[in-house]
Amino acid sequence: NFVLTQPHSVSESPGKTVTISCTGSSGSIVNNYVQWYQQRPGGAPTMVIYEDDRRPSGVPDRFSGSIDRSSNSASLTISGLKTEDEADYFCQSYNSGNEGVFGGGTKLTVL
Amino acid sequence: QVQLVQSGAEVKKPGASVKVSCKASGYTFTDYYIHWVRQAPGQGLEWMGWINPHGRGTNSAQKFQGRVSMTRDTSISTVFLELSRLTSDDTAVYYCARVGPAGAVGGFFDNWGQGTLITVSS
């Protein structure tokens, strides 16, 4: 049973850099691409990173994604934090049966 | 532009069924898989399943098998999610999401519907 684990919450000051991790429970996280979604209160999720490290048009280059094979984890890094980045962030991938899997979500506070 | 517009909020009694619609526009409907994701109040995102609008194939998470049905009507570019034998645990916002790239079953959710709140209460 493939599970993605994220920290429950992170906080950082405006202008700083924060990294959110997403660790796979079994197998290898590199077997399928990882996506990251931002969800502001009351809104639908929006994609900020796809296929591990690609950024959709319209997403600022302050957002970046990476994979660390040695720790079987993916990371979302946001630099130059702005108050508007305050949101929940979810990582997402697939298991071996092509079923979607989401991480539990990380609440980012920018204070 | 790509849009997914879902049906409105509903209140259902335990044991009932609900059918949520998701109308697509701005792209060729049959070229992209649609997935369904739900979010209980204050909780995370939960993947439910997918439908291939081109060939009708579907797949759902094991926990929903036997009480979920995903269908589509290509004449109106709309997919439907029907969930039966509702309990209070099914109270959630239900989202449809388009998967890119075209033709990929397990890709990225590049466009989402606005969500439909389903409340199950006696």
Short structural summary:
The complex is a heterodimer of chains A (111) and B (122). Chain A is mainly β and 111 residues long.
Throw out a few tags for this protein.
heterodimer; A: 111 residues; mainly beta; four-stranded antiparallel β-sheet; globular; B: 122 residues; seven-stranded mixed β-sheet; 0% helix; 51% strand
Could you explain how this protein is built, in words?
The complex is a heterodimer of chains A (111) and B (122). Chain A is an all-beta fold and 111 residues long. Helix content of chain A is 0%, strand content 45%. In chain A, the strands form two sheets. In chain A, strands 2, 4, 5, 8, 9 and 10 form a six-stranded mixed beta sheet that branches. In chain A, strands 1-3-7-6 form a four-stranded antiparallel beta sheet, with no helix packed on it. In chain A, 36% of the residues are buried. Chain B has 122 residues and is mostly beta strands. In chain B, strands 2, 4, 5, 6, 9, 10 and 11 form a seven-stranded mixed beta sheet that branches. Chain B starts with a strand and ends with a strand. Chains A and B meet through strand 4, strand 8 and strand 9 of A and strand 5, strand 9 and strand 10 of B.
Beta-strand content estimate of chain B: over 45%
SSE topology string of chain B? EEEEEEEEEEE
- How much strand content do the residues of chain A show? over 45%
Mean pLDDT of chain A: 95
Summarize the main sheet of chain A. Answer: 6 strands, mixed
Average predicted local confidence, pLDDT of chain B: 96
Rounded Rg of chain B: 14 Å
Q: What is the percent of helical residues of chain B?
A: under 10%
The N- to C-terminal Cα distance of chain A equals: 36 Å
Low-confidence stretches of chain B: none
